[in-house]
Amino acid sequence: MKKVQIIILAAIAISVAVLISWMGNLSTYETIASAKQKPGKTVTIIAHMDKQQPMEYDPVKNPNYFSFYIKDTLGATAKVVYHFEKPYDLEKAEKITLKGKMNGDVLEISQKTGIQLKCPSKYKDDPNMAKKELSQN
Amino acid sequence: MEYIGEHLLPGKIGHFFAVLSLASSLVACISYFKATNARDPLEEKSWKKMARWAFGIDALSVFSVLVTIIYIVSNRLFEYNFAWEHSSRALPLNYLMACIWEAQEGSFLLWTIWLCVLGGILIKKAGKWEAPVMTVMTFALFCVATMILGIYLFGHNIGINPFILLREKMTGAPIFQRADYLSFPQMQDGQGLAALLQNYWMTIHPPILFLGFASTIVPFAYAIAGLWTKQYSGWTKVALPWTLFSACILGTGIMMGAAWAYESLSFAGYWAWDPVENASLVPWLVMIAGLHTQVVYNATGHSLRATYFFLITQFVLILYSTFLTRSGVLGDTSVHAFVDSGMNVQLGLFVAVFLLPAYILFIARYKQIPFIAKEEQTSSREFWMFIGALVLFLSAMFIIISTSLPVINWFRKDKVTTSDDAAFSYNRVEIFIAILLGLFTAITQFLRYKQTSREYIRKLMLPTAIALVLSVLVSVFGGINYDKYGAGFMVAIHLAMFAGIYAVVANATYIYSGMRGKLKAAGASVAHVGFGLMLVGILFSSAKKQVLSYNTTGILLNFDPEAKQNPMENITLLKGIRTDMGKYWATYVDGDSLDHRSKAEYFHIRMEKKDGTLNFDLYPSWLKSTKGQAQISANPDKYHFWNKDIFSYITASDNPAQRGEDTVQFKSNPIAIHDTAYYSKGYIILDSIVINPEKYHFGKGDTALMAHLTVVSRDSMRYTATPVYYVKDNAPRFINDTVFAQNLAVRFMGLSEGRKLNIGIKESSTMTPFVALKVYEFPQINILWIGTIIMIIGFIMSIVWRRRQTRLSRVEI
Lengths: 137, 813
Hints:
The structure holds two protein chains of two kinds.
Chain A: H1 3-24, E1 27-30, H2 32-36, E2 42-49, E3 66-71, E4 77-82, E5 95-103, E6 106-109, E7 115-118, H3 127-135
Parallel strand pairs in A: 1-2, 4-6
Antiparallel strand pairs in A: 2-3, 2-5, 3-4, 5-6, 5-7
Chain B: H1 9-37, H2 41-74, H3 81-86, H4 96-102, H5 104-125, H6 130-147, E1 151-153, E2 156-158, H7 166-169, H8 200-215, H9 217-229, H10 235-264, H11 275-300, H12 304-327, H13 344-365, H14 381-403, H15 405-408, E3 416-417, H16 422-444, H17 454-458, H18 461-477, H19 486-513, H20 523-543, E4 546-547, E5 571-574, E6 579-581, E7 584-595, E8 600-609, E9 615-618, E10 621-624, E11 632-635, E12 637-640, E13 644-653, H21 656-659, E14 667-671, E15 676-679, E16 682-691, E17 703-713, E18 718-721, E19 724-728, E20 731-735, E21 737-739, E22 744-752, E23 756-763, E24 770-779, H22 781-812
Antiparallel strand pairs in B: 1-2, 4-24, 5-24, 6-7, 7-8, 8-9, 8-10, 10-11, 12-13, 13-24, 14-23, 15-16, 16-17, 17-18, 17-19, 19-20, 21-22, 22-23
Helix pairs in contact in B: 1-2, 1-6, 2-5, 4-5, 5-6, 5-8, 6-9, 8-10, 9-10, 9-12, 10-11, 10-22, 11-12, 11-14, 12-13, 14-16, 16-19, 16-20, 18-19, 19-20, 20-22
């Protein structure tokens, strides 16, 4: 066998090993109910903000503590604690992707990128707003 | 209904040219195809002539479409959706082009324009390769032209029509039931360009990036032409400057995006492994792999098959990236992908129509592609260049697989995604890639093609020694103690630092020891020096990035029971109060809305080093949405030192709009001069009264009284306050004064009985203006930018050099 072929095979073997170890570190998409079954494991939940329940952010007291409630499509709710500032347009997001660990009934998020907002677009303002504007009068 | 005041002609002209460009690109494509397959030279010539005409018409149409859009936008014809959605009257002229490529259809238009420019150059320069190469180019033009077509066919929407009228798009809106809808206030102005995008990078980053995107098709087209015409090897030399050009421009575009992200978007860094960033990095990595194997083939005859594979794959990946970023599949994983615009099927087809024929052709002709049976020497340059290309390719595959998780999830039952620390899941793999690439970059230049003698390898001793000494010095004194992910990762960082320094030193010395200072031919070495510097800069700035605003002394630190384990990157500064921030004292001096046009609100933060050696000011700002909503985006500010940047952005503030109504009332306290009134944290002395104070420029007819108050707090701090009472239009008016440190507002409410004066006191917890912000220190970030610039210069030198070489070799033939 040629050297190059040996190296390619070795490289592929290493890549597969890397890929498998990387797969092990992936988090799974969960509903709020199923996430509660997996305390301490990093889970990803897609939900929207539950505006019926209070949101807490008082930067004068603590700029690194933000809590709010989420509700998923199955109707389950959970409290979220995010140890960073409140994302600017959280209320406008139609969907929120959250990555964190369940601690009892609370989803603890300790990475900045643990909250990702699905806005109509980061750079575009709400197209529904445009519609609204046109519907006046 | 007959609508009043609409300008329908420009739209009709524009749409006509959009359709014409589609038709003419198809004609050009077919003609070039026929010309390539023609046996008879005369027949070939006539097909080619027709193809050139068709291409000319196509190019003209594409430019006419652009001119029409510019006309519509600059004349503010808001009856057109494009103008209404993307521009506004207040938009300065220099953002006119920016608002064109902000739109999905506008960015496709930019792509076609670059394709036309490149096509024009190819017709002039490509010689005998014109017909097959231009077949591929015009086919791409045809495909992209469908993206701005905007017609319904068999119930499917094909492309987005940039000339659609607003009333055609928003059919349900009631105002369009009025013939005079254009006279309505909401039709007088457009939605404008998002405030975040009103940045000079927006005027140059997209055109460069799209030139990079568009140019990747040229090496691909040459590879396809080689397979198709079975002249498997003739194109590799003439196409080399194109490969270099494309790698150079795409690389520049990517790094401009990084600079933009660093400078003005609050991602707190230049690279976040965001899927959209990855989508353009991955094709670039594969392009670089192809560039190296192409050079190997030109020099030795090895690696032609690999060159085909890489150059085809990089373009397929460009199309795949286009699909990923524009189809909306990345919506849950990326912060800045386009939204689903209902073109997913079309975008998917766009990938397929290139991917399938290209790989089928490659596989079918694979056996015929010439190769050298004798294998490369282990001491040869080509051997290690090939291995390097392989590493680049595998690293690209790793990144694209991670990025494609949303696509992979379509085929999986339990959906997965990256863990919460997405950046580290890339970094822990890419750090080893960086070590390998740094080492290869350093050593391979010193190897000869075919075989390297021991004597040559000895030349490597000196740079190796220098690099070792330098990197040991950096490791010992550089202060890289990045142990967040354990000792193993830190060791890897130090190794990578050595590899980066080694690449810089080895390539710099090679220009002298290997090429005897022949700088003209040293483009590759220069580019590699730049690459090495980039590695060093990336490692330094990421491993030594410091959060200065760690909330170690913040108010009510224990409020959060788990505060110790959690990152506390934000610190709150109350206005006027000097706050401890690690090595610095930080003070929120003032907040002011300086620039009303851009609706930016600047915050003045004073930074003082505790040892008193350094003072400077930061002015991070908030951009309010230009579209009349309460949307806010933070715009950072940084202070440059020669060796680091201090970088800050605002994360929260007591924006009056957010604060809501202050419901607390003033409590009246009738007191005489020199008397005292009490509040919860101390007392207030009424010192004196000034009639018609000069400070406020009251006229002779006005009656104004200003009270001089001294506020003494429980901790014996003294503050002064001067509220004013005056009468205007027979009604009492007040100018309140505040003592923010005491959360206290005072009002001079007027005269009371018995020579007493009424002083109103209000205490409220929400009164103190404050900001919460993050402050980072990025050390040695300049090395990254300098490295980038050197790499680009190296690319340009190589392009010039290789072009001269191909021209000379043509003369020899």
